[in-house]
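Summary for the funding panel

The consortium committed to producing paired sequence-structure records for every protein in the target list. Below we show the first two records in order, beginning with the earlier of the two.
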Amino acid sequence: MKLSVKSLTITAALYWGGTVFFVALFNYLSPPFGKAFLDLVSSIYPGYKSVGSLGSVIVGTLYSLVDGAVGGAIFAWMYNAFSD
């Protein structure tokens, strides 16, 4: 059985982007929420700071959408390559 690279790319991008978006948004509304998680995310994405501003919510979400898409595409491609 093969995985759809396109479907997994979109799914992973939306899942990871949504996760970072909601944690960052809740941190923006209630600053102590998810601080450790956002500090970890800011250590991975260059230029992203977990300062609790609306701009950081947007930047973190964009980074995570791209990261999720790339990760999903690579995972699906590798799965299909090795499942034969």
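The next record, for a separate protein in the list, is shown here:
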Amino acid sequence: MNLNKAMIIGNLTRDPEMRTTPSGQNVTSFSVATSFSWTDSAGQQQKKTEFHNIIAWRKLAEICAQYLKKGSKVYAEGRLQTTDWTGQDGVKKYRTEIVLENMIMLDKAGNTSGDNNFTPRTPANNQINEELPIINADEEEEIRVENIPF
């Protein structure tokens, strides 16, 4: 049995970029930052940020491109995939990304003010009023083993 699963909660570092493959499939790429905080042996608060490359395909790609933007908080779930290529300098390069299988918007797309209206990113910029579930996830809160329900 094998398992290849990645689950992260973080903020987009840039607006999603959607492209269409020659075969007509939509693919969207974006990056999500996650942070980890701890206290070192000297009692100083430390923080490390990781950056995750994410790609979404087909309908999920369209949804990500339309509703997500830089700064959006998302839950992203998918599988890890590493691609390699040889650069122009002849050096082999690698890129590991999460191939998105599930995504949950944790704040209102295009809106950080807290009200229930948001504006999707569409060419016509049509106004859509929709309520999304709000999940309060405190970035600084440490996850403890005793708080895990299983």
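Regarding this second record: The CA atoms of residues 110 and 119 lie 6 Å apart. Residues 109-141 have pLDDT under 50 and may be disordered.
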